[in-house]
UniProtKB/TrEMBL annotation:
The protein's annotated pathway: Cofactor biosynthesis; riboflavin biosynthesis; 5-amino-6-(D-ribitylamino)uracil from GTP: step 1/4
Enzyme Commission no: 3.5.4.25
Residues given in the record as Zn(2+) binding sites: 56, 67, 69
Encoding gene (name): ribA
Binding-site residues for GTP, renumbered to this chain: 51-55, 72, 93-95, 115, 150, 155
Protein name, as recorded: GTP cyclohydrolase-2
PANTHER family: 3,4-DIHYDROXY-2-BUTANONE 4-PHOSPHATE SYNTHASE (PTHR21327:SF18), GTP CYCLOHYDROLASE II-RELATED (PTHR21327)
Active site per UniProt: 127, 129
Spans traversing the lipid bilayer: none
Cofactor note: Binds 1 zinc ion per subunit.
Keywords: GTP-binding, Hydrolase, Metal-binding, Nucleotide-binding, Riboflavin biosynthesis, Zinc
Amino acid sequence: MAEVRARVHLNVGKKSDIPAEIASFSGLKDGQEHVALIFNQADEQQTPLIRMHSECLTGDVFHSSRCDCGEQLNESIELMHEQGGVLLYLRQEGRGIGLYNKLDAYVLQSQGMNTYEANNHLGFADDLRDFSDAVLMLKALGISQVKLMTNNPKKLDALRNNGIEVKAVVGTHAHIKVGQTGNQAYLETKIAHGAHMLDIKKIKKS
């Protein structure tokens, strides 16, 4: 069982003006340094809003036009600032294939492959992520029932199949980036191939 090891206060969000507490853990299965961002002491709520956000350096930090990860992260932070929440930031770059492999996949996508085809061409499965550490993190925080912020059915199943009761699912918007290298095809592929519960009509353009 993972245990909370340290808590540090910081400010996050697009303007770095939203207060949050960051918690680190020890004893996680995969050895990665996953962390939890806790807003408004949400770990003390009976059914807090939760998001499992897989790290995306290119999207979260450098605002890549190929995905909407950074926009989803900011949307989650802003909602959790309003109502409280726990954001599990998981070190799972590129759906688990790592940063350098993801950059190789970007090259293949530029040649016409979609995100899943590119991963498969490199010898990887569609999605290598395992969310068992996220379950351990929630249990370490004393959280057993949640409102889950996601469009990904795999994340929903991971919690339900491992003893976390999901009381409600809150979807994020479709953050479509307009322009020559927009991400609409990427989002449409996630819906068609990955069965993501994403309403392409629920659009926020940037």
